Amino acid sequence: MELKSILEAAMLAAARPLNLDEFAGLFEEAERPAPPDLLTALEELDRDCAGRPVELKRVASGYRLQVRSAFSPWVSRLFEERPGRYSRAFLETLAIIAYRQPVTRGDIEDIRGVAVSSSIIKTLQERDWIHVVGHKEVPGRPALLATTRRFLDYFNLTALSDLPPLHAFVEQLDSAVAESASPEAASAPISLDTHDTNHAETDPTPAPETPD
């Protein structure tokens, strides 16, 4: 059996990114391929995917096979629930954490000029897009928030250094979430440099999440 075929089967079965250690763990120790052999097989598989509806993508957690974005208009119809819409406040909070991390809730509120709804933080944590990485050494020791590996995986990033310029990230949110049949982003641009007190947060929670 070809190594690249075994790796392809494993990724299809796992339905999540797999790293090199996990690929190596598929084999008995006596026949376990070395990392360079695994990388060569993945490169061959990547070439094989050319012209196919699926592509091999490297993300923070490893490698995965995913449907190309060009097929999103049809594939997204497999999901019974229609994508919802995240509020502007939700997307601003996510963008601030991603680009200014680690930050406290107070830092976010200082940047946005309004209070951050608890439901926004809760939703981001439930999606495993953010987590607490420590506490700021000031009175009250507020939690420091940062993005997770799951956040990087979701947006097809291998590291925070891969984040595009802020305006480009905001523009891409809509298509990125739609491709995964998840709630789509609001299209208005987000600024981290000015305080906007006109953002209502009466309904910051997105519509029910569709299957990943």
Outline the structure in words:
Helix 1 crosses helix 3 (35-48). The protein has helices at residues 3-14, 20-24, 35-48, 72-75, 88-100, 105-112, 118-126, 149-154, 166-179; strands at residues 54-59, 62-67, 130-135, 143-147. It is built from 9 helices and 4 strands, in the order αααββααααββαα. It has 212 residues and is of the alpha+beta class. Residues 176-212 have low confidence and may be disordered. It is 40% helix and 11% strand. A two-stranded antiparallel sheet has the order 1-2. A two-stranded antiparallel sheet has the order 3-4. The two termini are 31 Å apart.
Keyword list:
two-stranded antiparallel ribbon; disordered C terminus; alpha+beta; 212 residues; 4 strands
Topology diagram in text:
Layout: H1 3-14, H2 20-24, H3 35-48, E1 54-59, E2 62-67, H4 72-75, H5 88-100, H6 105-112, H7 118-126, E3 130-135, E4 143-147, H8 149-154, H9 166-179
Antiparallel strand pairs: 1-2, 3-4
Helix pairs in contact: 1-3
Please state the overall shape, judged from the principal axes of the Cα atoms: elongated
* Number of E strands: 4
Overall structural class, as computed from helix and strand content, comes to alpha+beta
Q: How much is the average pLDDT?
A: 81
Instruction: State the helix count.
Output: 9
The run of helices and strands is HHHEEHHHHEEHH
For the termini, the CA-CA separation is 31 Å
Low-confidence residue ranges: 176-212
**Relative strand content:** 5-15%
What level of helicity do the residues show? Answer: 40-55%
Rounded to an integer in angstroms, the radius of gyration calculated over CA atoms is 20 Å
Q: How many strands, what sense, and barrel or not for the largest sheet?
A: 2 strands, antiparallel
Strands of the widest sheet, in order across it, are 1-2
